[in-house]
Amino acid sequence: MTVTSPHLSLEPDPVGLPVPGHLDQLESEAIYILREAAAQFERPALLFSGGKDSAVVLHLAVKAFRPGRTPFTLLHVDTGHNYPEVLVFRDAAAEAAGVRLVVRSVEDSIRQGRVVLRDPSESRNGHQSITLLDAIEEFRFDACIGGARRDEEKARAKERVFSFRDAFGGWDPRRQRPELWGLYQGRIAPGENMRVFPISDWTEADVWRYIAREDVALPPLYFAHEREVVERGNRLIPVHPLVPLRANETPVTRTVRFRTVGDITCTCPVASHARTAEEILVETLTTETSERGATRLDDAVSEAAMERRKLAGYF
Prior knowledge:
alpha/beta; Rossmann fold; four-stranded antiparallel β-sheet; 10 helices
């Protein structure tokens, strides 16, 4: 007999005990990876932007070590161009989890001359690497846990779960380690770093299934709301002082939501009336457009260009 619930299906094993469903298996694997990171590294940080993927990873981290203390520092690299709603959520989520939050700003890196923009309106997403590497050195983080998933784009599909970075923060695919039988090798020399991706095997749909099942809190931008936008090609561009309108563009008010949130200058909403995680899951399962390809202007780059960013220390 099959036992069902609104969120998972359990099939009996040969001795009649229920077998964990798909979400349970993903959760178990992610918790195992988080515990391995805590065991193998002295000063691990959890990269926390306030986006849905990092919110899920934080939820998993709290669950992994409950009722004890979550052994990670939250680190946010703030571009200075984030949506205010996301920053409010970021602070509230860190406080609710009882975890220390460290924020380092690309704006400070610009003032220090560490980051030089070609143009003041340029997206700062690609420049976060410098601020991240400076924060890693400042706090001596030996591992940074992120919410990247392999299904997001081709360069990220090449990442290991424990992704080795050299003393300059660079990713070298030839120096990555085999990960057979769920064994992760975290040994590093002083100055080297590991990036850890506990939800690497999850899809966008898996993330929304989990958010719905666990009632994970998110910034309101992820759910349908009215916003002024302009149509530019096949994208909706949010109307904002940081995003100058082009000649002959006329703002219109549309019901939209964000599939991913990041720098205002490069994050686009999509038309949607989905106001719950369950409704968003239905949309996710029926869309033909990838998450980042549809909504992130700075990700409309070649696989080689994204890999060059990773070689320079990008997330």
